From TrEMBL:
It comes from the Bacteria. Pfam families: HTH_IclR, IclR_C. Keywords: DNA-binding, Transcription, Transcription regulation. Residues 68-213 form the IclR-ED domain. Residues 6-67 form the HTH iclR-type domain. This is IclR family transcriptional regulator. Gene3D superfamilies: 3.30.450.40, Winged helix-like DNA-binding domain superfamily/Winged helix DNA-binding domain.
Amino acid sequence: MTAETSQTLDRGLRVLKLLSDTDHGLTVTELSNKLGVNRTVVYRLLATLEQHALVRRDLGGRARVGLGVLRLGRQVHPLVREAALPALRSLAEDIGATAHLTLVDGTEALAVAVVEPTWTDYHVAYRAGFRHPLDRGAAGKAILAARQGALAVDGFTLTHGELEAGASGAAAPLVGITGLEGSVGVVMLADSIPERVGPRVVDAAREVADALR
């Protein structure tokens, strides 16, 4: 810790990180051991976080992440969207297909930013807010492949007809961003994806990741 940082805030954030890494919650004793502080300090931290709905405690006394974190998370999407738009615009114009940024939202893939090309006669209508299962469509499958360490050597995923009849998709996951799972991709009306599209999508995903770091 330096003179410019708050030890209490640092500990509170560490509590949230520890709780976010577990599905079954943590006891005061477990948090005390992991933080290297006494139980009294942990009780005060939890009480403060509970006041802001960032932490909740069940009947057994185990602390878990609270619903207030979801409200904070919803404010992240506009920031992420703004950072991603330049790369998405470039991708859409270059490929002539609808480009999108998709993030994990629970068990679903959620399109948070979509850019359509300006010069094509027709393209797939794809809207921000569109949701689909992670195991369907290039966007979700690219995320799952990265999560499972099973991404193809070329770094992108291709699908056809999984979300819309006659449409093909290509997507590459965002890599190296702590706490954020997502992908960048394109969707087009075609039986197959042209060879140059996959590598171009990978480049766009890298650009978005760099903008978010």
